[in-house]
Amino acid sequence: MNYLKLILRVVSLCVVLFLLVRCKKNELKILAYEEQVLSDDNFESIYFINDSVGYISGGNTFLNSKLYQTIDGGQNWDIIPTNTGKTLYKIAANQKDEIFVAGFDSKIVHHQNNIWQTHQIHTKPIWMPIKQIAFSKNYAIACGGLYFNKGFLLKSTDKFNTYVQTDFETELYDIAFTNDSTIFAVGYGTIKKSTDYGETWESADVEGDVYVAIDFASELIGYVVGEQGSILKTFDAGQSWQYLRKANTLSQKRYGFTTVYFIDELNGFISGENGILWQTNNGGDTWQMQTINKKHNYTAIEVINKNLLLVGKNGVIVKLTLH
After folding, report:
1. Is pTM beyond 0.90 here?
2. Pairing of strands 307-312, 298-304
């Protein structure tokens, strides 16, 4: 009889464990889903400076640029004319909430005193695409590159009126400050770190992917994703990086990640090609995988007013109400 009770308890425990594992694999529960198409062109970035005011950038690489603004939390979007003529990439804001948009042909669109201006940056070689801009208290940095093997970083203290260029052997896609002197840059097969305002750089021991996005949830904890499906995490301010998921292995399915966004050290999202949206609530130990309209290739994430906003190719905006 005791053996029978033991067997029943073991069976019951196995059932409970099975249900728990099954629950972890459940798709995200979405309370509401809205989809809007603003343009036939591609969106590259979405950025809100507060609960009401936000921006979307994009365009067609060689044909036009697109920049939109909302003042009602994303309910309505109005186009902002620019004279750049080619794609606009990532959006950032400085300490005064002045908007800067990275662009093709080394252009930066800047909003100050209710006026939109386009600055022509003279990179060497000339007119390399600027992919991302970031700000600390005293510095502005921008990064970009061309053809995987040419990268650069610009450092400025006066809103890119003047700047110093540092060249790299690999194209850079994203950058982040963790404090005024510490900068991270990611790109073609590389994660780089500087602790002296970008004067010198160290490369992390990583390989096997094109690292396209980086986000720090705190000064110590950060995440990087690659376009082949890698996910990396640091617990020690970039002294070391741990693979949560390694791409280009026989046992791993390829996922085309494009962006990573963490609300705090535990709660974050990854999105990318074919409608993928991954969510974690335990710092990347496990992920809930969802497909939000497989025909869409998402490029950027923003969380505002308890809504998760995705933008992507072909001018799509998807709004998901978070539970």
Report:
1. no
2. antiparallel
